[in-house]
Amino acid sequence: MKHSKEEYIGIFREQADKIFADLLKSKLSLNSKASEMNKRIKSFKEIQFSKILQVSKSENWSTETLLNELLLLTYSSYIVMLEFRNDIWLYEYMSFARRIGELWEPFCKLPFYYPIKKLNLIEPPEFSIIQQKIQSDANNFIDTLNLDDKIKQELKQKYEIPWTMVDSGGINLNLDLHFEQNGIHYNCDFKSGFSSNEKGNTNRLLLVASIFNYLGKNEKQIIFVRQKESENNHYLQTLKNSKYWTVYCSDDCYKAIKEFTGFDLRNWLNENAQWQDDIGEGFRKHLEQNDLLKYLTW
Description:
This protein is α/β, with parallel strands linked by helices. The protein has helices spanning 5-24, 30-58, 63-88, 93-113, 127-144, 149-164, 199-214, 234-241, 250-261, 265-272, 275-278, 281-289, and strands spanning 120-121, 177-181, 184-191, 219-225, 245-249. The longest helix has 29 residues, at 30-58.
């Protein structure tokens, strides 16, 4: 079942050729064809992914062997996905930079899904449950005050007013990754980078982190950022300077991933992810002519 990177890329290109030929016959828009290409390659990758898991279990592979194979498969699928999307609809800088960032997050999460060190993936709590705890704590505190019952009741009623304005269903505490290690709950977000349109996302991250912070010292919030810190704008600094988030950028991000999972993803990328050599000549020329090769950096 094990394959080299070159073999995996060949397997995916063969499959993508069939998909591409099929899509050429359709009357779908370029956008729809590109989306369908990505969808079908991803589906094919997931089938191969499942096969690797089955074989690794039957042959009792080590976690590191399994993870290496899954990373090779995933990286190879990315190479071909990018190539054939460009064959259908030529990349320009905005779409290409965004796509490279989108692929980075699930890739970085693989060492957490198949860790060498012990850690457990967990689900974040429902905000409605946290809301009930906050309200209960406040009411219990009011009951301890040296006030008559009428004033206590009035305080409780006034405290309830802002809660009527909060739509608990609208506050989603799900981030990109949640795991527990050594009694600490880590709530993690992955970002390719912070640009000028990140205000809304930054405010949400501050709100979510403040809620986790309320739960106690065993909750830690982390942001993993693909770009170097100097390449990001003030929204990243806002999060970094808050009391809620620990931020890791670029190589520091990979060091942290290794510390948590036991797997050196930076070293794996250095040894295996030769983007400019692995992509096809036609795609590489397009990226060169449009100054897009610089975005092939993880």
